[in-house]
Fold:
Amino acid sequence: MLWLDLLGAEVRYYDAGGVRTRSIQAGSGMPLVMLHGGGGHAETYAKNIIPLSADFDARAIDYYGHGLTGGDGRPPTMDVLVRHFIDYLDAAGIERAHLVGESLGGALAAWTAIEHPERVGKLVYCVGAWLKIPDVDPEAQRATDAGLGEFRRLNEQFAANPSRENIRLRLRWLFHKPDRDLTDELVDLRWALYEHALGRQGTAGEERRASHMLTPENLARITVPTLFLWTDHNPSQHLGIAKKAMTYVPDAEWALMEDSGHWPQWEHPEIFNEIVTEFLKK
Structure:
């Protein structure tokens, strides 16, 4: 149960540059902010906030236009997402934080580290999005193209027919073994949040621009210690592409979680929490 996992956490709302922003948080010490994927919400980290709060001021937020966080009419470009996130840090009184970003949240965390390195301690780029790496292994590229093609198809299917069943199909894509890890409660939660947000940015997904792709040149601008946390069955970016991308980051490490898809923090939370804690504390 989500809120059994979150027992002891606090839900707070912050005025982040005029945008009402939801944060689920617990603990004290060095702030650790966790960022969900596109179309997601703070409960992405329901199984991680309390365990990580033993060592950190652990927080998961709904970023701009997602979950129960609002928007102000701006399209959700990366510039807007980063600006809103910095506004959240300011509103919460956080000068510097470790960042964990999953999928689009990984791209958001990476761009925050690129543009505001003084606000970031360490970065965990977890099955992150927006990599654009040249000359990768053809098999890795084919696997990536197939996974992203299915992701686009499921998003288009939901946009054409918003329904609880199409939410379930979209969520199944996240998991290596959905029959094991996808719960009715998560489907109900995502559907309730989407019903709340229909017509807002949170259902439309991010707006990409070529200048914000994580090319070798942009990856080389990440100066904070960075962990590439990947899985053996990630459908969005094959691990071969991620391993090559990592070589362009000046201070990068690698960790692989097995038997996991696009939500390792949910599929194997104990392993995820241990990897993150070890990297951030050493």
Summary: The two ends are 32 Å apart (CA to CA). Residues 127 and 230 are 5 Å apart (CA to CA). Residues 2-281 form a domain with the Rossmann fold fold (CATH 3.40.50.1820).
